[in-house]
Amino acid sequence: MRPRSLHIIRVMTKIAVVSAAVFALASCVRRPEASGPVPSRQQLEWQQLETYAFIHFGLNTFNDMEWGFGDTPSRTFNPSNLDCEQWVLTLKAAGMKGVILTAKHHDGFCLWPTATTEYSIKNTYYKDGEGDLVRELSEACKKHGLKFGLYLSPWDRNQPEYGYKGYVDIYHKQIEELVSNYGPLFEFWFDGANGGTGWYGGANDMRSIVAEQYYDYEKARDIVWKYSPEASIFGGTVPTLRWIGNEEGKANATQWCMYKTDFESLNDEKALRQGYRDGEAWLPAEVDVSIRPGWFYHESEDNQVKTVEQLMDLYYQSVGHNTNLLLNFPVNQEGRVPSIDSANAVQWYQSLQKEFANDLLQGCKVTASNTRGCRFKAKNVLRDDYTLYWATEDGVHQAELIFDFPKATAFNRLLLQEYIPLGQNVDAFYLDYYFNGKWLPIETNEPTTTIGYKRLLRFQTIKADKLRIRFKVFKGTLCINRVGAFYAP
Ligand code: FUL
User: Fold this and answer.
1) Which of 206, 343, 397, 411 has its CA 20 to 30 A from that of 472?
2) What DSSP state is assigned to residue 379?
3) Which of 267, 295, 298, 326 to probe ligand 1 with, by most ligand atoms within 8 A of CB?
């Protein structure tokens, strides 16, 4: 070959090597593209709350009822020893990050001195009519660092105007009073129970409405966001999160944050339980369930408070299934969270903290079958930092992680988290462990399908030298934020 051709070949080779290096660096520096729906900042922050409380308290508490008819005199409301700080301190000790109060339930009785009706706390003996529970609870939350939210029942069995245009204006006015006076709110709850029989100012009849048209939920949402732009919206026609479709605390293990947005789908109890893999909107689920059978306090249920074990199951089936847990605490006639409820909830939270105190993967060597390199390295999954994650190169649909323990280690819990700001992409993962020279599958009693923001698994204690997790994505790029292994005695 002539020297000139040789020189050209050398130059071309150099160019090829340099471009390959530049390309590799560019693709490893570049973060993966999101494919499909992703959470808004507000939805991500909401998901990171994981557990928060409901408080059901009102006239029903004093009538031993779940759904008051709307005709009980307001003076029936008469707590003898009410203390919102006791609620908040209890909830905080139970790990709750916020609390949502029933400012008005279906009976129409308002826990704040509203200008919209006489059926409120101002016409009771409580603080001689000077009390305002929405204010008292919001202040206790501020004082102790809990987020504050409100439930305002759209259905109002006391209002004469219910079912007519007049009531919708009243309802919107009530929302405005609440959000403008007691915010900022982290969540606003539009209940789904709607219309039926009621007192309705003495008419004592039956009123049916078409919920998706009647309440003008777009306007209601806009009023909430005018004062509390960060508030998540439950229910109605324009929610930012979805109901799980039951009130027993059941969320399927396969759990998509994606959903459809038509009103019918928002009422499809079966679909609500697990979401849609191909849903066009990001609409994560909230599991609402009471610590007792009822939402309101009933003395007859004092012996049916959920035990520590039951609360633990609830946690694994909600937070552990990529949903948030909204746990209800009925306040009693004294105006307190009963001691048995508070004892069980606090003990449950303490057990939970113990279970997740010691991540056994922390000392492991981690190897990945593929990595994007740079700041997307496999070791990121051991960091407790939601801004970091391990990511593969584009176009890789399956990849695995192997964790090498420094010495054989026993564990029975696993924690997995996807980096959801880039979507929910995993639709299967497989777990194996290496012990005595061979790989064996970890037997879980639920399908190892989705992960999402958080997936928790419980299984029989295993002893392992290595742990292997194989992941499969159905779209986008694999982005795993966290993996942890724990031992619960
Ligand atoms: C339901 C209501 O009818 C219950 O009384 C309770 O408030 C629950 C959280 O939502 O739809």
Assistant:
1) 411
2) G
3) 295
